Structures are given as structure tokens and as C-alpha cells.
Amino acid sequence: MSEPVIELDEITKSYKIYRNRRHRAVEMLVPGAPVLHTNFQALRGVTMRIERGETLGLVGVNGSGKSTLLQIIAGIVRQTSGRVAVRGRVSSLLELGAGFHPELTGRENVEVFGTVIGLTVADIRRRLPEIERFAAIGEFIDQPVKLYSSGMFVRLAFAAAIHVDPDILLVDEALAVGDAVFQHQCLLRIREMQASGTTIVFVSHEMGMIKAVCSRVVLLDAGQILEEGGPAEITSLYFARASAQIAKTQVPHDPVTISTSPAEPTFAADPGFDAQVRVFRHGTGAAKIRRIELLDSCGRPATAVAFNDEAVLRVHAEFLADVPSSIIGFGFRDRAGIELIGTNTFEEGITLPPRLAGSTLVVDFRLRLPLIPGTYSVSSAIAADRYTRAYYDWIDNALIVTVAPPASGKAIHGQVWVPVDISVHPS
Amino acid sequence: MVIDALAAPFQVLVRQRPVITTFVQREIRTRYGTSALGLAWPLIRPLSLLALYTFVFSTVMKVRFGENGSTTDFVFYLFCGLVPWLAFSDGLTRATTAIHDQSSLVKRIRFPSEVLPLHQVLVALAIESLGLVILLGALLVVGRVPGWPLLALAAIVIPQFLFTTGLAWVLATLSVLLSDTRQFVTFALMFWMYATPIFYPLELVPARVQWLFWLNPMTYVVEAYRDAILENRAPGLVPFAVFCAVSLTVFIAGYWVFQRSKYEFADVL
Description:
The complex is a heterodimer of chains A (427) and B (269).
Chain A: E1 6-18, H1 21-29, E2 37-50, E3 55-59, H2 66-74, E4 81-86, E5 90-93, H3 106-116, H4 121-135, H5 150-162, E6 168-172, H6 180-195, E7 199-203, H7 207-213, E8 216-221, E9 224-229, H8 231-249, H9 273-277, E10 281-282, E11 287-295, E12 304-306, E13 310-319, E14 327-333, E15 339-344, E16 360-368, E17 374-383, E18 391-404
Parallel strand pairs in A: 3-7, 3-8, 5-6, 6-7, 12-18
Antiparallel strand pairs in A: 1-2, 1-4, 8-9, 10-18, 11-13, 13-16, 14-15, 14-17, 17-18
Chain B: H1 2-15, H2 17-32, H3 41-60, H4 71-96, H5 98-101, H6 103-108, H7 115-141, H8 152-177, H9 180-194, H10 207-214, H11 217-231, H12 237-268
């Protein structure tokens, strides 16, 4: 077996935190100065080997140390202790277009960029036509980059970064740029690079992307490796931990609603709710949502449900004025903000009666969530009727719901699954 | 070990040559390529300073240079001092902010950041050479053809570059850690300029304190330029050797300071 391309031995990184800029200078310059910093431990002993041609995914919540680790591999940040060995030319997509000079043309910037990562000018000139073709910015290649649209800038920077034949490519969430066509193009190019033996280290919060691209995944938590393994296994673990985390931070539920036998639901306002949703809320205020909760198939409050399991979304509404009619609805958005499912009482043929000020209403939406595992944000609203645009209350991010992978281990293709009948007709 | 440490700053010059070259080109292109007067600017500045200082020091204050003490002489002596001084002070001023100005490079990609202060020093020297061309042209016009000691300039420029770069590395490092450095450099250079015999001949300085002036390496640079260009005198071996030793020390020490802190840059910026 050949040597690993990247070797990390017991890497730690602590950042010195100073209360004041001056303290850092004093500590550095004055001999025998007292210790004026506190330490922030970003990495606590990370050891890993990455073999040639591997695509390693790094996942973990914000602050788990993914980006620091990537910066150490890239040689931008130096570890506090431990040993790093990186064999080969590194190109990183940590920040696209880093160091591009606004006054220089695209072509000139690509040349400068190439020499920075270790190519000769002749090498870069040879690759320029391919970079131009990939970036597809046409005549603009000879214009100063300050005239570029942000899309053009990113396309050129990305094209430059992946066409310099790196041995190691570091990617940090960079693929979430550009339009759909470009993203698709990028993914294809990454596949080509994988096929030609480039080692890739990939940081993303997009578990779908991790699963699509990586051969091995490492889950980091608080600066340590928590687990490593295949993409399916680690992404499930990631989701499980994420939902556990969310459950911990959400306000504990009223014991009344925790009953295993389905009883008639009673209105119960959530005292912390108003403060929690304040910034995501608008509306006339004639009626207000006081609590929104998810119940699993047994009627227990839950923050996570398994893929396509039955669940109830329960909305507690209070009317603060007399209203002749109202419509209550909800929507589930994915992390990109796309509303994947949503409906309301009107569309489902339920007419809500006129309500007097001070009255309340509890509406249960019984539904399945055939969504690709991940976290979703629930919006909910109360409207007057379907014709006026007046909302009594509209709340985004009212609840975060995690959809866990199906127990069967079935893979979900696409964002939403619909029941399918397959019949096969052999000839 | 020791040899490695001493050789390291010179290895930068060899290993990073492609990066240094493109960055020098890029700097000149972005600084002058985008302005209407373009490459006339590096000439306009020293020439207008020359006119201003000549008026103040020669016409108003009657400072005299050379054997016959004419205004022409003053202009030549002043220009001879001004050219290396501007290279030095412009190089240092730009180098002090070089890391800040390119923080995205330092923070986001693996980049040999020692190139940043260094390339500013080189750009300043390149611009200086334009001034020298003008000076030599003017000398030819008035019929003062410099002799072979002119070649000594080539030898002086090398330690001059090492000296300036060593200081540039120290100042660039300090300015990342302490933004006061930028304020300090501007005004320290003003003092340094007047402490260097640019506007006045060293002979006018009281003999008792002249030795103090010789502690200033820039005094040596300015005097050596004048000797080589105007006095037709090759530099003495001993002073040259001393200047080389000082420059090497500053260069190596500056590199050491820079290397010791450069991995903190990404954390601080």
C-alpha cells in the first residue's frame, strides 16, 4: 500500500482569545509579560489517514472543528501540536476567488492564482482554454473582474481552482454557488477528478451531497472524531444526533398532552412561544398561533419522526377579535427554503366557523412526511379567507422537525417520495 | 541547522520566483496600468519632489553641494539622494500594509506570505531604476559622463534590497499584530529622511556628531550613490563590507521574525 496522501497525528489547535487587541501585542513583544489570553480549543487530538483517491467527507455541527481541520490541511493555519503530512499540490475551494484583484482581467487573475498554488506561467497558459470553456464567461475573460457579476466571478474562480490538476482538492460548502446548471457541471467535474485519482476532502452540511460524493465520512464533535465510516451510516448518525440536540433545546412539553391514548386535544398556549418566533412573525393580530407541536403516531410530542411515518401537526390558535371566517395552514421548508409540502383547512375542504374574541381552536393536521431525511422548518399561518391577502398571523420557523431515515434502510431519491406501483412485463 | 536558518530567506527568493515575478507585475499593472498617465507617474512624483526640495533648500535656504555650489549641482546631488531614499521609504510604507491589503490571500489559501512585503520592496526598486535612467540622461545632457565606478551601483543595490526587505518583514509582522505600526512608520520615515544627508551634504553636519550619521545605513547608501554617479569614486571596500554585513543581518533577522509569527496571521486578521 502506498503512503497516505494526508496524515494527521494527534492534531490539536487552540486559539488564543484576547479581550483586547493590545494584549496580544504585549504578550508577543514584552519578554516576561503575564499570560493575557484564554484558550479556545478548536481541535482536541484528531488523527486520520487519507489515502490517495479517497473522497473523505467531514461533517459535524457548526463549531465542531471541520473548517479548522480543513485550514490546517490546506496549510493556512498551523496546528498547536501534532504532526501534519500533506503530499501533493493542494487546491482549496475554501473561499472562491481569494486574492483575485478587481482591477486585473480574469485571464491575469487566473495566471496569478496559478503561480500562487505552484504552477509555472506556461502551465497555466496551457490550461487557460479549458478554464475559459468551463467558466463560460465569454469575452469577459479579458475584462477586469470588478465588472463581473457575482455569478461570473464565482464560475471563473471555481474553474481556475479545479483545473490546475491538484493532487488534493479541499472543498468547503463551495458547491452551493452558481445556478443549477453550473452546480451540475461542478459535480460532474468532481466525479472526473475522483476517477482520475484526485484526493478530495469535502466539508458540507448537505448530507445529500455528502452521500453522493464521499467514499468515507468522519463525524466531528467538539474538536474530536466521534465516529467514522460509510456515508450512509455516518449521515444517519448525524441526523440522529441533530434531532437529539434539537429535542434538548426545545422547551419541555406540557405533561397534559403526553398521553398515549388519543384524547380530545385541549388548547394550551406555550408561554415561551411568542419570544421564540418574534422575529419570524407578521400579521394583523386578530388571531394568534399560541403553540405548534408535532405528535408522533402514538400521539406523543416529538421533534423527529421517521420517514413517511404518520404524524400530527397540531396548531393551537387563539382569537383576539371577532372573525367571521378563518383558514389555518402550514408548510414544510427544506434547508434551502423551498416549501416542499403545505396545505390549509380551506384547500382540504374544512370550513372553520366564525369565532368570537377570546375563543380558541386546536387544529390537528394528520399527515405523513415522505421527505428525504433532514431537518425542516415549519411555517404556519391563520388567514381571513382565501380572497384577501390579510393574514391574522404568519410565522416562519415556528418549529424545526427532523425526518429520520426509514427503519427499512431504503434510500430516498429526490426530495419527496411518492408511493409508486411498479409492474414488470417480461417480453 | 544554522546554515539552514541563514539560507532560508535566500531560498525564498529562489523557490518563490514565479510568485514574486507575477506579483511584481501585478502590482505595477494595477498601480499604473489603470491610470491615464500610466508609467509617467513614477517619474512625475520624484521630479516634482525634486523641484519642490530644490526650491526650498537651494533657492530659499541656500544649501550648497559640490565644488562650485551651483543650483544644477544641488539638483544632481539631491536627486542622487532622493532616488534611493524614495525606493527605501516607498518600499517600506507599502510593505508595512502588504499583509493587511492581501488578507484574503493570507487567510484563505496557502500562500507564501513572505512574498507580500518583499514584492513591494522590489516594485519600489524597479521604480527607482526609472529615476536613475532620468538622472543619467540628464548627466549626459550636461556633459558629465559617469565613469566605471557607476558599475558599483549594481553591487550596492543588492545589500540595499536585503536591508529594506529585512525591515519590511519586521514592519509587516508588527503591523498585523498592532495597527499602530502604520502610523508609526509614516512618521518615523519622516524623521529618518531628515536624519539622512539627502537635502544637505554630510560635511555641513558638525564634525562632532558626524559619526552618529554613519550609524544610519541609509547615509551610506546615499553617499555611495553620490560617489558612484557624481564623484566618479568607487566605494571603499571596508565600508561596503560593513554595509553588506549589516544588511545580511537585518535580512536574516527580519525573515526570522516574520516566520515566527506568520502562522498567527490567519488567526489575527
